[in-house]
Structures are given as C-alpha cells and as structure tokens.
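hey so i finally got around to running both of the ones u sent me last week. sorry it took forever, my laptop kept dying halfway thru and i had to restart like 3 times lol. anyway pasting them below in the order u listed, first the sequence line then the structure token line for each. didnt double check formatting much so if smth looks off just lmk and ill redo it

first one:
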Amino acid sequence: MFKGEVVNVSLEHFISSAVGQSLMMLIMMVLASQTALVSIAIEKEEETLETLLTLPVKRVTVLWGSSSARLSLPP
C-alpha cells in the first residue's frame, strides 16, 4: 500500500528494497559502534576515561559527548 492505494510490485523489486534497507541499517549500526569504540579507546589512551567515569553523569552521556566531539572536529 502506498498512500492508501494498493500498488503492484514485483517480488524482485520488493526483495531488493528490503535487502537494501537492511544493509543500510547494518552499515549505520557498524559505523555508530566503530565511532563509540574509537571514542572510548582514545579517552583511555589519553588517560581521561577514568576522570570522566568519576563524574556524576551517566556513562551514556560521556559516550555521546565524547563521540559528538570527535565527529565535529576535523581529523
């Protein structure tokens, strides 16, 4: 259905769309995981991870802050 109307779509087209969307989601999850892991590894290497973990904030907040800072700065 598309906008309330039944649309005839070939099985090949439907499967290729489903596989393409699944593949894009997988790639996005891998990239997000890689960014998080690199962010934590850099914090540990710079010996700032221990200090960050002693602060009264959630660990997810530390991860998001560190990841967003790494993504916003040029390499």
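and the second one:
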Amino acid sequence: GKQNCFCLSLILSLLSLAGVCVDLILFPLDTVKTRLQSPQGFRKAGGFRGIYAGVPSTAIGSFPNAAAFFITYENVKSVLHHGSASYLTPATHMVAASLGEVVACLIRVPSEVIKQRAQVSPSSSTLRILSHTLYHEGIQGLYRGYKSTVLREIPFSLVQFPLWESLKDLWSWKQGHVVDSWQSAVCGAFAGGFAAAVTTPLDVAKTRIMLAKAGSSNASGNVLAALGGIWRTQGLSGLFAGVVPRMAAISLGGFIFLGTYEKTRQLLL
C-alpha cells in the first residue's frame, strides 16, 4: 500500500533525475545529430559551434517527460498484468511503453521543437525561439511534429523494451541467476542502439518536420511525404543521416538509464 507507493515515487524521481543527467551529458551528440539531419546540412546549421544551443529547453522538459513516461508505463503494466497469462507479458510491455510515449510526448514535443530550432540557429536564444514560434505559429507551432514524434517513439519502444527484457531473460537463464544491474545496463545499451538504428529514418523525418518553415510542405507534418522527399533528394544516406551520433547517444543513454532503473527497482521493490 502506502510504502509501495512511496517506493514507486522515489524510483520515479531517481529515474527522472537519471533521465535529466543523461540528456545533459549526451546533449552535444544530439546537437551534432540534429545538424546532420537538418535541411541546410551540418556546416550551415552551425557545425561544431555552440554545441549546447537549446540546452535550457531540454533541462526544463527532461524531468517531467521521463516522469510522465514511467508513471504511465508502470501503471498500465500493473493494470494489464492483472489476470493476464505470462505469455502475454511482452505484449503488455509493448502496450504500456506505447501509452507511456503518447503521454510523455505531450511534454516532450514542445521542448523538442524549441531545442531543435535552437540547435540549428545557435546565435538565437532559446527564449527568442520560443517567443518567435508562439508569435508566428501559436501553440500548435509547439506541437508541430507531435504525430511524427509518437510515430518515431512507438516503434522505438516496441523494439527497445521487449528486446531489453528478452536479453536480460536470456542472460539470466545462461548464468542461472538474475542479471546484475550492470548486466541489465549492457542489455539496455544493446537494445537502445539497435532500436535507434532501425528507427533513424523516422527520426530524420521528425527533424525535418520540426525545422520546416511555416507553410512549407513538411510543415504539414506528413511523415510519409517527408520520408519520400528525403529519399528522392538524398537517397539512403539522407534517410540514415545522423545514425552514428543517434546510436551512440541512445546506447550510452540506455546503459545509464536502464541500468539505474534496474538498480533502483532492486533496491526498493
């Protein structure tokens, strides 16, 4: 009852804090990725200059975003686990992760829009970009790319979380006892890196949609149209722009984040 509830909220706070740290440590990789994916190309978007442009937006959005995801994930999981057969476990994890993303994106998308726009115009402040976006596009400007973010996150979660859980199960079975938190972290890094690579084209489409000039075709938020445009103009290399920094960031992120997740769960539950 009460104690369990307290433990869960403590876990969520620690996790969300881990999420913030991961986002801030790996921010330069994210900036490089955004600039590689931007329509104007890496050099014109700022190259290696102002590598922390847009960081205030991430700093503010990161904690509530991670908390929203895990609160939804844990709650949905416990509701669905109630009375469902064990072979349905991967499916319940998938549903829980997907719903977690839909909720978390309500917070993530506005902070991501501002962050990405700041990353490709490092001379403007985050505040200026925020007011410019609100003035010219209103609240819906902040939610530009909501659909494409959810469309990127859900396949990502559907690959990452079940893969993470099965790698842990496999390793536990191989060694005859449950994995340690460092092993869980290694599984998290693998699962994250693989999921990141496979979903890169969706990530590029999302970047193009968020950075598109108001009124341009990409600004409408159509993911398939954006993917088609990138494929026609830049081919496969365009669709996988920024795949290396994306994989690196998410592998490291998965290592730190999912390792922390496992450790706090072992300590408290």
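quick thing i noticed on the 2nd:
The two ends are 12 Å apart (CA to CA).
anyway thats it, ttyl
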